Amino acid sequence: MQFFIDSADVGEIKKALALGLCDGVTTNPSLVAKTGRAFDEVLREIVALAPGPISAEVTAIDAEGMVREARAYAKYGDQVVIKIPLIVEGLRAVKVLSDEGVKTNVTLCFSAVQALLAAKAGATYVSPFVGRLDDISQDGMALIADILQIYRNYDFDTKVLVASVRHPVHVLEAARLGADVATIPFAVIEQLAKHPLTDSGLKKFLADWEKVPKK
Ligand code: E4P
After folding, report:
1. I need a labelling partner for 109 at 20 to 30 A (CA). Which of 10, 120, 183, 212 fits?
2. How many whole angstroms separate alpha carbon 178 and alpha carbon 169?
3. Alpha helices in 75-121 (DSSP H)
4. In terms of C-beta density within 10 A (0-12 exposed, 13-18 middle, 19 or more buried), how is residue 60 classed?
5. pLDDT tens, residue by residue, 98-142
6. Where exactly are the structural domains of the chain?
7. Cβ(107) to ligand 1 under 6 A?
């Protein structure tokens, strides 16, 4: 499973790259707003840093406007993937862009039939938001299982990118189900490495090492 970092913070992206845990980057308007920086400047920096796919989200809500923004973002680098919301106009835009060979990530997916439409439109990735479904007492990971099954039934090439990841169990379940990618906030990437028995075990080893006679 590939690990993308869900962040527009260049500092976090650098840290994830240094850990070897950044196969790609996803951004969204809320993540960009958190940086307090202009998106073109942030996107240029991320493209220079990260060789993997980098999702840049359009903000137009009509297909023509989305395609216009997509063509502009695609010029920033070959690894730029255009993030398009899963609305009817978005599907129209994905169809145009996939026919042009522009890679797309269809975002804000909350149902398996929405994901089926994204694949039929030719999306490169679909992003089901597991955490936001869990927030409203629906089963986010059950949606991932359904989408994976449907895509396998029909051999769709669209990759399942698990989004809105909130904790390590989402990552574990995504890997168990065989999702293609999980996009993970940096704080969760750090959490993945942690275990209290690792910490207490290390503490004991270091304490015992002090008792070993040194020459
Ligand atoms: C996906 O690409 C989105 O950027 C993201 O995963 C949304 O997560 P949130 O629900 O934590 O905002």
Report:
1. 10
2. 14
3. 88-100, 112-121
4. middle
5. 999 999 999 999 999 999 999 999 999 999 999 999 999 999 999
6. 2-190
7. yes
Q: Which DSSP symbol is given to 156?
A: -
Instruction: Say which residues have a Cβ less than 8 Å from residue 198's Cβ, sequence separation at least 6.
Output: none
Both tokens assigned to 189: 């990437």
40-66 pLDDT, tens digit each: 999 999 999 999 999 999 999 999 999
Count of C-beta atoms within a 10 Å radius of residue 162: 30
Counting other chains too, the contacts that 63-70 makes at CB distance below 8 Å and 24 or more residues apart are: 63/89, 63/90, 63/92, 63/93, 63/96, 66/90, 66/93, 67/93, 67/96, 67/97, 70/97, 70/102, 70/104
Interhelix angle 10-18/39-49, nearest 10 degrees: 10
Residue 105: its pLDDT value, please? 98
Residue of minimum CA distance from atom 10 in ligand 1: 164
Rg, the chain, Cα only: 19
Looking at CATH, the fold of the domain delimited by 2-190 is given as TIM Barrel (3.20.20)
pTM of the model: 0.95
Top mutation candidate among 4, 7, 28 for ligand 1, by most atoms within 8 Å of CB? 28
CA of 146 to the centre of ligand 1 (A): 20
